[in-house]
Amino acid sequence: MTIRLRVSEPRVADDLASFLSGHDCRAEVAEDGTVIVELPHALHRDQARMELELYIRLWQALRGVSVDLLH
Question: Are 60 and 67 in contact (CB under 8 A)?
């Protein structure tokens, strides 16, 4: 399952991708500046979304940057 994220400050998209990669996610920055994330260990979409939302909240708290899930 793949989820796309939009960071309010595109210059930190690489930092978000690196942070998520450190938490067993596959994450890369696309040419349009969105972050494409896969959670290969998630059993289903709801689990993946909940887990990713927790990681995003932590990253946002550390960086003060907003992130939108695009599906």
Answer: yes
